[in-house]
Amino acid sequence: MSLSPFASLLSGERVLTTPRFVLSPLVVADAADFKLHLSDPAVVAFMDIDPHTDIAETLDVIDWAQDLRSKGSGVRWAVREREGQAFVGTAGFNTLVWERGCRGEVAYDVSRRYWGARVMDEVLPTVLGFGFGALDLRRIEAIVTLGNDPSCRLLERHGFEREGVLRDHAFWKDQFWDQVVYGRLG
Fold first, then answer.
1. CA-to-CA distance for 34 and 31, rounded, in angstroms?
2. Nearest to 148 by CA among 119, 105, 177
3. pLDDT tens across 86-135, in order?
4. Which CATH class is domain 7-143?
């Protein structure tokens, strides 16, 4: 299997910064903080996972993120405060498509302690800049679970257009979920 053209761009310690935050690839050393983050039912309410109760669940997510990055098919960064290095959440691309597309799917999550602090208003432009710049993406999309209004408003503030609703598109937590598709062209 050949690697994606993105693999070399995502290899190594690809760190992004904003005035308040540092984004570094998610690694095993993040596991304890990440587990605490993902154990909050409010944080995972619109995600396809249940609250984490075991570190093994969190390590599986980190393995998934590292596998994406090693293949060049995605990247997930741990977001930490520049001052004090407190874990704030994650952001990145769950999917990068080169063949027949040149697009990425952006995703993010923020610890409840930071809700209302405009973390993603600061982080998202940096992630998008990396996508449209270094990765030379033509399109970045986001898939949001219907009802996650703060995420929809964030995307709209940053130039994404609501393109439609995929009815009963996803199934987790014993039910089907409608998904809202957002897109932005570079």
1. 5
2. 177
3. 999 999 999 999 888 899 999 999 999 999 999 999 999 999 999 999 99
4. alpha beta
- pTM higher than 0.85, yes or no? yes
Domain boundaries, the chain: 7-143
Show the CA angle centred on residue 27, arms to residues 179 and 125, nearest 5°: 50
Q: Which residues contact 186 (CB under 8 A, 6 or more apart)?
A: 131, 132, 137, 138, 139, 140
Token readout for 45 is 């309410």
Beta-ladder partners of 81? 21
Question: Helix (H) and strand (E) counts for the chain?
Answer: 5, 8
Which residue in the block uniquely carries the two structure tokens 């030379």? 136
Backbone angles phi, psi at 58, to 5 degrees: -70, -40
How far is the C-alpha of 61 from the C-alpha of 150, rounded, in Å? 24
Read off the pLDDT of residues 126-179 as tens digits, 9 standing for 90 and up: 999 999 999 999 999 999 999 999 999 999 999 999 999 999 999 989 999 999
- Helix (H) or strand (E) holding 60, with range, is helix 55-71
